[in-house]
Specification:
- The complex is a heterodimer of chains A (about 325) and B (about 325).
- Chain A has helices spanning about 30-35, 80-90, 105-115, 145-155, 175-180, 220-235, 255-260, 275, 280-295, 300-305, and strands at about 5-10, 10-15, 15-20, 40-45, 60-65, 65-70, 95-100, 120-125, 160-165, 185-190, 195, 200, 205, 215, 245-250, 265-270.
- With about 325 residues, chain A is an alpha/beta fold.
- In chain A, α2 (about 80-90) runs parallel beside α3 (about 105-115), α4 packs parallel to α5 and α7 packs across α9.
- Chain A has a single domain (about 5-310), classed as Alpha-Beta Barrel (TIM Barrel).
- In chain A, α7 links the parallel β15 and β16 (about 265-270).
- Helix content of chain A is about 35%, strand content about 20%.
- By secondary structure, chain B is an alpha/beta fold.
- Chain B folds into two domains: about 5-155, Translation factors (Elongation Factor Tu (Ef-tu), domain 3), CATH 2.40.30.10; about 165-315, Rossmann fold (3-Layer(aba) Sandwich), CATH 3.40.50.80.
- In chain B, about 30% of the residues lie in helices and about 30% in strands.
- In chain B, the strands form four sheets. In chain B, strands 12-11-10-9-13-14-17 form a seven-stranded mixed beta sheet, sandwiched between helices. Chain B has a four-stranded antiparallel beta sheet with strand order 1-8-4-5. Chain B has a four-stranded antiparallel beta sheet with strand order 2-3-7-6.
- In chain B, β15 (about 295-300) and β16 form a beta hairpin.
- The radius of gyration of chain B is 19 Å and the shape is globular.
- The relative contact order of chain B is 0.13.
- The chains are: A alpha/beta (about 325), B alpha/beta (about 325).
- Chains A and B meet through α1 and β5 of A and β1 and β8 of B.
- Bound molecules: flavin mononucleotide and FE2/S2 (inorganic) cluster (FES).
Chain lengths: ~325, ~325
Amino acid sequence: MPDLSVGLPGLVMHNPLMLASGVQGGSARALQRVAASDAGGMVTKSIGPVPREMYPGPVCVEAMDSVVLNAMGLPNPGADVFAEILSNENFSKPLLVSIFGGCAEEYVEVAKKLDDAGASAFELNLSCPHSKPGSRALIIGQQAKSIHDVVSAVRDAVDAPLYAKLTPNTTDITIEAKAALEAGADGLSLINTVSAIEVDPYAGRPVIGNLLCGLSGPAIRPIAQRKVAEIALSMRRGEIPSAPILGIGGINTGLDVARFVMLGASAVQIGSALIWGDVEKFKEISVELSEFMDLNGYRDISSMQGIALDSLEGLS
Amino acid sequence: MSLRAPPHNRLPLDMSRLSDACSLRLALSFEPRKLISAPIPLPLVEVQFEAEGIATLWVQVPNSMATQYRPGQYFMCWNPYDSTGGMSRPHFHSEKPYSVGDIRVGHSHAHQLVEAETGRQGRDFLGFTIKDLGRQSGELTRLSVGDWLAIRGPFGTAFPQMNAGERLVLVSGGIGSTPMHMAAREARHRLGDDVRIEAIMGFRNAEESHYVSRMESICDSLRITTDDGSLGTQGFPTALLPELLGNYHDGRTVLLTCGPEPMMLPVLQMAVDSAIKCYAAMERYLPCSMAVCGLCMVGDRLICKDGPVMDGDWLLQQDDFGSSHGHWAAVG
Ligand SMILES: Cc1cc2nc3c(=O)[nH]c(=O)nc-3n(C[C@H](O)[C@H](O)[C@H](O)COP(=O)(O)O)c2cc1C
Ligand code: FES
């Protein structure tokens, strides 16, 4: 049987399949339910400085086959309540605590509270509007300078491993990757959802309560793969520091995992697929991945990693 | 930010053609996976008064949806022009889960009556019976014919199907009447006289009572309780349940219940104590219905996927089942 285990900063996992942020992982009970599944690791719902309510519904729909739209509104219990959860619970799987804020100071505030409560590693969700005047039109993850500010501030405040979660909604994702890694991130997670809007022509308005939304699910997988490949290639060429990449976007089968790994990812995260299979998806995907690797003679994850990049080497 | 129905400077609409077109749209979306996964707006073809603050909203659906719907399953219902709606309002739930209360399938007797009234032959309709329990449901009960209701679904689990020779005991509280009616209707439809159906309907008072004539026409026996005694027996449904369960120790009885959790808890307990198989349809607010928000848990299960119909024995073992937190939200 192939060895699916991976060891990354803060993430020693029996397989490379993690729960993506924002899907089910907002409470102790929900995280325990995922921990009891075959997931290798988990990312929490993004936690901010104060509690936040959900946006008006519909908050998440499947607009067409495999085209998932959501605008949940980052509902979360806030750093204080989540700190209590972290101090009271033991999880059987490694946990990245996803955090967000409107500026570097807020990220630091949340990171410190959760670090004190025992968080062993963080994912910085950079897909948040900047709250400071002058930068509001863009999210933090679209501005290399803001990324640098946030990551280096959190880097200074806590010792735990940091993964910076990148948005695909920029021109050249290697710029944001570079900013995060040079500021001290230990790894990268990508991609977050793709900016989207869908209108119902009979209703004459957008179908999501919040009007604007993010696109996820199998529809975005090739986009995500491209972004992972661009960053991995840039690392190979030594243009940006090397670090593990957690591939995210539309993963629904074991073959999808292999695709991301072959483009350079060290592990993956799975979100929307739970719509169709709930937490049993982790078992299903790990069995498929294991069978695929067995059939094709891949001993372990690292023996597959990056092999599809070789053909891209010559591209500039 | 205010959202309005499409501009009124449009040409007059032929509601009948519009409803047919929307129904066709539903059919195309429903067919591949037997699920409408994004809301499809439908014009209301009829709004039926049930009681003070309770109305049934009728929408036209394709025959496949009307016949394949299983009692207990729910639809997410959304009024896209909710007048108090807007972006990012806390506690603003503009889309909520409702189970189907009544169905009119082409060629049924009830259907022929509607046909006579509306001239809409051979069509099928779903009726959502909604009680004004809060902002969103209140808005829905005040809609009129020609207003829009967007639906997606059906989601979730259904009641188990009855077998010939079995007895069905139905216990509802308030608006929990609607899935009980659909369960009774399905059992009678499939098994005719080979199933005995006995129901208890609990209401706050006579003014709240609804669905009584629908249930009377299907059930072999119907008992009504009201909190204040203004109709039927004074008290909760549990007051009349022992006499109904006492008769049945033959392993051929199934109890279904739907209503506020503090009512369902003792009902299920009585059934389990009498060794009667029982199921509850959970009425809680389900924010997403898609297994993504993780906020609909009871025990270690998601109500949106593993429910709303859940095993009574299992529910009784969950420490977060039975308080009143869920009820207002589910149907509000
Ligand atoms: C319902 C939903 C909620 C999400 N919430 C968050 C969140 O709180 N923080 C975050 O970083 N990403 C969030 N995401 C993005 C996912 O983590 C992931 O990056 C994206 O959905 C692509 O992966 P997928 O196609 O497997 O879902 C959310 C996605 C969905 C579908
Ligand atoms: S309603 Fe969101 S997970 Fe069940």
